[in-house]
Design goal:
Helix content: 40-55%
Number of helices: 4
Largest sheet: none
Number of domains: 1
Order of helices and strands: HHHH
Radius of gyration: 18 Å
Shape: elongated
């Protein structure tokens, strides 16, 4: 599978499901449902593991690396909140009497 296509799908998933930013298993499941096999929940674990290539599913490590690349390019989709850019519209006023 092409790397750019995987990364584009990962961007969409990270935007649609913020929980996938923190948990690679959630990301993997959503990716498999969205991009490979809609009825993946009907497969047994053995069927999944033994047939993942035939089903067109990339390895877990491939998706994990794609997530890391995407989050490096788009910090707003990362696990941590961004520093100053996210808080640029916050104003603190201190009144001293």
């Amino acid at each position: 599978m092409r790397r750019k296509a995987i990364e584009t799908d990962i961007i969409d998933i990270l935007k649609e499901c913020p929980a996938s930013r923190y948990d690679d298993m959630i990301l993997f499941l959503i990716y498999c449902k969205k991009c490979c096999v809609e009825n993946i929940g009907n497969l047994t674990f053995s069927e999944f593991v033994l047939n993942y290539k035939k089903l067109g599913i990339p390895s877990f490590a491939t998706l994990q690396r794609a997530r890391q690349r995407v989050q490096a390019l788009f910090p707003e989709l990362s696990r941590q909140e961004c520093d100053s850019d996210c808080n640029s519209d916050v104003t603190v006023v201190i009144n001293i009497n």
